[in-house]
Structures are given as structure tokens and as C-alpha cells.
UniProtKB/TrEMBL annotation:
This is Pyridoxal phosphate-dependent aminotransferase. The keyword ATP-binding does not apply. Residues 22-379 form the Aminotransferase class I/classII large domain. Its EC number is 2.6.1.-. The lineage of its organism: Bacteria, Bacillati, Actinomycetota, Actinomycetes, Kineosporiales. PANTHER family: FI04487P. Keywords: Aminotransferase, Pyridoxal phosphate, Transferase. Its cofactor is pyridoxal 5'-phosphate. The keyword Transferase applies. InterPro entries: Aminotransferase_I/II_large, Kynurenine-oxoglutarate_AT, PyrdxlP-dep_Trfase, PyrdxlP-dep_Trfase_major, PyrdxlP-dep_Trfase_small. GO terms for molecular function: transaminase activity. It comes from Kineococcus endophyticus.
Length: 383
């Protein structure tokens, strides 16, 4: 693990604290989730849900996850064998990689990649095969030839992420179909990180890859309460999929954390049953804030690609004369009193994704209007 230093999020949040800059780096909301959710967790603490819960997670939550998958996607995992509660999506992904990969197995990953993925692949002793998502005029697109070329007879797993951090891309049906075809051809398991499943905009729909023909039997679908309910500090996540694959994840999870978050689990279970309006209103409000930040960035002189989902917008500072996103992010607190995250931190140094995104900066818009407007105001000074 020597090559993995402190995460870019820790580094940039510390920089924001040290300098008093507005922190649009690390993606966490500055307001809490729904009041009913918070009240339910407090009530669970008060009513004594404070000891180890069952290893698979509390039954109410496993049943609620199963209902959620049915309500949104028409899948009905068995709460007894096909749903596992984990310490956030992070642990689900970690345990899946550790449980399913042998040393030397290959893992196909979209790049830029969430920073945990390369570290987890390394922990599993597996080999990363990156497929670039390349900037286009208005977004990012999967390099299809590179995707096909990334598969080999050593491919064990495809680690997908849609909606995608950091680019905000929602993979198209066509892109998912190609991943599915290649996974079937190479008999690979797909682990898909869908933590932003409910944060999609402009009428885009999130489609879990597990719903594609032939995929249910080879896909582990991962999500968490952090993003959907604005409680990133609770670390309650889950994975669903066929019983043998979930069992492999559980075999690892039981020795990583054993169990987690007893009083949060019944609260999250109830929140998953919130009416459609909650999910729609939240996405609409976030879309409004996406537009607020995007407009501010554009008027400050950045090029902006409008994300279809997530908490993040990618800004291109080259029109302002900045070519190196990492260097700009280090200087941005001093230049403008704002913190962002360089997209190259999500890329293997020297690779095609790093090269294509070298100048780009990720800013989060999961903040109050006041904070976003303050950041936009400060950034006007960059010209
Ligand atoms: N996956 C992605 C793509 C993320 O952006 C994050 C960060 N929120 C996580 C996983 C971590 O999720 P959790 O906090 O539920 O572990
Ligand atoms: N997922 C969040 C982001 O991308 C941060 C999570 C973390 O700090 N590891 O900003």
C-alpha cells in the first residue's frame, strides 16, 4: 500500500480548513437528511438498538432494500440470502473484490475511477485494467474499443460506477449493453457501485446493469444510504445479487467489520419506503444547485460539462489560462478562496485518462445556495 498516500479528499478538506476556503472538494452535503430519518435513529438508540445486529444486517433493512430494488427496478432479491448490509458502499466494494479475486486476476475499471477502487484492487492482489471515459464536447463517453481490449482470459471482475464519480456520467443503455455482452463472453462478475442512483437529472433514468438480459446472475449491485438520504457519516450500505456471490462478500465482511450501525439500520429501512415525491424533490433540488454552480463557473470563465447525475460538476480552467488541475487546486484557496479536487487524482499517472483530464477540476454542488453563491462570487476574481 506504500504508493497510496492520504486520500485527495482528506488533503483537500484539510487545505480548506487551514485556509478558510469554501470547500467544494469532498462530496458531502452541508444539511442533514429527512427529519423522520434522524428521529428514527434517535428513537432506535433510545429504545436499546445498541448491540451487535445480525451479521446480514437487521431484517427490516434487508426487506426494505429488497422492496426498494423491486419498486425502482423490478428486481426482488431474497432478503434472507441475496441482500447484505455493509459499512457503506465502501465495505461492500472492498469485500466483493477481496472475496471474488484471486491474486493476479484482472479487474476492468472505468477511469477516472473513485479513488478507493485502485487501492482495493491492490489489496486484493488483483490487476487493474483501466478503460478511459474520455471528455467529449458536452460530457464523457466510454472508449468502447478500449473497453473490449481491456478484457482477457484473466478478467474476473468488472467494477462499474454509474452515475459516475467524478464525471457525473450516467452510462447509456448502449454502454451498459456492451459491458454486459463482454462480461458474459468472458464469464466475468460485474460489481456495480450505484450510490448516486437517485441523484440523476434532466429526466435521465438510472438503469442498474443487473436488469440487463443475462446479468442478474453475475452482478453484485452496491448502494448506500449516505448519498440518497444525505447522511454520509452513517456508513450504512448494502449489496444485492445472487446468493453465492453475496455469500462470498459476506465471508469477507464478517471479518472486516462483523456488523455495523445497529440503530441506523431500522431508520434507513423506513427511509427507503419514503414516497416517490421525496426522491423526485431531492433530485430536482440538487439539479437546481447543479445549475447554480455551473452558471457561476461559466461566468467565472471555466468551461463546464453538465453532469447527468451525482454531486459533481467538472470544470475546465484552460480558458482562464490554467493547464494543470492539480497545481490549480493547490493554489485555488489563495487565488480565489475555494477548494476543488483535481480529476487527475482519479487516474493512473501517465495513462490516457490522466492525460485527457489533466487540466480538469471537480467541484461539488451538494451545498447550500449561500455556500455555492459565495464560491461563485469568489471565483469571478480568477479572470
Ligand atoms: N462509491 C462512490 C462512487 C462514492 O462517490 C462514494 C463516496 N461517497 C462511495 C462509494 C462511498 O460510499 P459510502 O460512504 O457509502 O461507503
Ligand atoms: N465520495 C466523496 C467524494 O467523492 C468523498 C468520500 C471520501 O471522503 N472518501 O467526494
Amino acid at each position: 500500500m506504500r504508493r497510496f498516500g492520504p486520500t485527495v479528499f482528506a488533503e483537500m478538506s484539510a487545505l480548506a480548513q487551514r485556509t478558510g476556503a469554501v470547500n467544494l472538494g469532498q462530496g458531502f452535503p452541508d444539511s442533514d437528511g429527512p427529519a423522520s430519518l434522524l428521529d428514527d435513529a434517535v428513537a432506535a438508540v433510545r429504545s436499546g438498538a445498541n448491540q451487535y445486529p445480525p451479521g446480514l444486517g437487521v431484517p427490516e433493512l434487508r426487506e426494505a432494500v429488497s422492496r426498494h430494488q423491486d419498486r425502482w427496478y423490478g428486481m426482488r432479491p431474497d432478503p434472507g440470502t441475496e441482500v447484505l448490509v455493509t459499512a457503506g458502499a465502501s465495505e461492500a466494494t472492498a469485500a466483493a473484490l477481496l472475496g471474488l479475486c484471486e491474486v493476479g486476476d484482472e479487474v476492468v475499471v472505468l477511469e477516472p475511477a473513485y479513488d478507493a477502487y485502485p487501492a482495493l484492487i491492490a489489496l486484493a492482489g488483483a490487476v487493474q485494467r483501466s478503460v478511459p471515459l474520455l471528455p467529449t464536447a458536452d460530457g464523457f463517453a466510454l472508449d468502447r474499443a478500449a473497453l473490449a481490449a481491456a478484457f482477457s482470459d484473466r478478467t474476473r471482475l468488472v467494477l462499474l460506477n454509474t452515475p459516475h464519480n467524478p464525471t457525473g456520467t450516467v452510462l447509456s443503455e448502449d454502454e451498459l449493453a456492451l459491458v454486459a455482452r463482454l462480461a458474459v463472453e468472458h464469464d466475468a462478475v460485474v460489481v456495480t457501485d450505484e450510490v448516486y442512483e437517485h441523484l440523476v437529472f434532466d429526466g435521465h433514468r438510472h438503469r442498474p446493469v443487473a436488469t440487463l438480459p443475462g446479468m442478474a446472475e453475475r452482478t453484485l449491485t452496491v448502494s448506500s444510504a449516505g448519498k440518497t438520504f444525505s447522511v454520509t457519516g452513517w456508513k450504512v450500505g448494502w449489496v444485492t445479487g445472487p446468493a453465492p456471490l453475496v455469500a462470498a462478500v459476506r465471508a469477507v465482511k464478517q471479518f472486516l467489520t462483523y456488523v455495523n450501525g445497529a440503530p441506523f439500520q431500522p431508520a434507513v429501512a423506513r427511509a427507503l419506503d419514503l414516497p416517490d415525491a421525496f426522491f423526485a424533490d431531492q433530485a430536482a433540488d440538487l439539479q437546481r444547485r447543479r445549475d447554480l454552480l455551473s452558471e457561476g463557473l461559466r461566468s467565472a470563465g471555466f468551461g463546464v460539462r453538465t453532469p447527468a447525475g451525482t454531486y459533481f460538476v467538472i470544470a475546465d480552467p484552460t480558458p482562464l489560462g490554467f493547464e494543470d488541475g492539480t497545481d490549480l487546486c493547490r493554489r485555488l484557496p489563495e487565488l480565489a478562496g475555494v477548494v476543488g479536487v483535481p480529476v487527475s487524482a482519479f487516474c493512473e499517472p501517465g495513462g490516457p485518462a490522466a492525460e485527457a483530464t489533466a487540466a480538469l477540476v471537480r467541484f461539488t454542488f451538494c451545498k447550500s445556495d449561500t455556500v455555492l453563491l459565495q464560491a461563485c462570487d469568489r471565483l469571478q476574481g480568477l479572470r
